[in-house]
Fold this protein.
Amino acid sequence: MNNKSIGVFDSGLGGLTAVKQIMNELPNENIIYFGDTGRVPYGTRSRETILKYTRGDIRFLQTFDVKVIVIACGTASSAALPMIKNEFDIPIVGVIDAAVYAAVRATKNKKIGVIGTSGTIKSGEYEKQIKEYDRDMKVYSKACPMFVPLVENGYFDSPVTKLIVEEYLEDIRNEGVDTLILGCTHYPLLEKVIQEYMGNNVVLINSGAEVAKYLKKKLDDEMSHSAVIDENQYRYYVSDDVSSFEELGGIFLEREINGQVNKIDIEKY
Ligand code: DGL
């Protein structure tokens, strides 16, 4: 048993797609979430900046003495985690491995689409890992930089969202992929519109949800589940306005989070 908390972070709301699934899969666990809302988006930044932000986010979560850190951000998982994982004496889990594992099992025609931020697509990490499973897989990647601001502003299902989805996904749809990795953890919040556009025969892989399943397996294997449910089981921190995070985060998680969100100065870490 290990009653320490699980630390999870993302640039904003997107990582809540992992949190929601961790709450379902691991209902006894305590979660500390950090959304770097003051510096979102990460996906359009240089690798140097993404590395700096990722290190700071990990250092902040380490102040809670957590047992594992989940990088619920495709950008930090692909553009930073491979370089920094040995710098910290704590297990750190990113979203790429888990999403790739699910995608290579889901595809039947070996055509996989990958959408993510510019940083993620530029890193080539998804494509690299898919090809490591099977060199015959065809991978069609596309950066969708406007998806993150749509999500952060609550445009989950608007006519504007539908137009932008069509604009970004047309080529991938025309290639006939049967599996599409939502390689940025913000994108599952647009899942309904994306699924409608791609059609029901295309399997969408939610990278946030997949990392939660991976985490469950890891805690099972290491027998390090929590046995005690804390009074403050879920705590949320942001680096900018608390109220919009409470509102949109609460809608997405389908639970009241008002009063549980605190603002911190991430530049100190
Ligand atoms: N949700 C993040 C990701 O998975 C970051 C999006 C962003 O900040 O650009 O890539």
Summary: The two ends are 29 Å apart (CA to CA). The chain has a mean pLDDT of 95.
